[in-house]
Design goal:
By secondary structure, this protein is α/β, with parallel strands linked by helices. It contains 6 helices and 6 strands. It has a 4-stranded parallel beta sheet, sandwiched between helices. Strands 2-3 form a two-stranded antiparallel sheet.
């Protein structure tokens, strides 16, 4: 009897491990899997305006963890069938995530390598994501917002005022 139970458990484990991980909109990051008959699916008939408060330097798969999860949300919305023109995502960079805003050249000078997050940020921007850099964090980190930031990031007065402004306009956080 225990062999039969062991075989059944192994079959279940192998089935779980063989899930079809996908990247429907953002390649290589934010892996998602379809869940048949999932409850509370995103509404495909309404606009989704979601802002991520990116303040951590933690990484996942070689990129900023917050960016990775932003990519996952974008992929989930695509997988759920939400039309691209109904998805607006934003990332507000500050604190430990301030250096995400650096151009490759500025990152090379500061960290000795090009910005490892920039390819993912560009893929997210191409999918309609807007990135805002906290001007206060930039100043604290001696980042010149006219010379040091990448081409997909926009300087803002502060993270706090940007998050407040977006929330007042109906944006939500995940």
């Amino acid at each position: 009897m225990s062999r039969l139970l062991t075989a059944a458990l192994l079959l279940c484990c192998f089935s779980a491990l063989s899930q079809n991980w996908q990247h429907p909109r953002i390649p290589d990051y934010g892996s998602v899997v379809a869940v048949p008959d999932a409850a509370l699916m995103p509404d495909v008939h309404r606009a989704h305006r979601i802002v991520f408060d990116l303040a951590s330097a933690n990484t996942k798969d070689g990129v900023n963890e917050g960016l990775w999860y932003l990519a996952r949300l974008r992929n989930l919305l695509e997988l759920a069938g939400v039309p691209a023109d109904s998805i607006q995502l934003a990332g507000v960079l500050h604190g430990g995530a301030t250096n995400l805003a650096l151009s490759d050249a500025s990152s090379q000078i500061r960290a000795g390598e090009p910005n490892p997050n920039l390819p993912l940020m560009r893929a997210l921007a191409a999918a309609g994501t807007t990135f805002y850099l906290c001007g206060q964090s930039a100043a604290a980190n001696k980042i010149d917002v006219t010379a040091d930031i990448n081409d997909v990031t926009t300087p803002a007065l502060s993270a706090m005022t940007t998050l407040l402004a977006l929330k007042e306009m109906g944006w939500v956080t995940p």
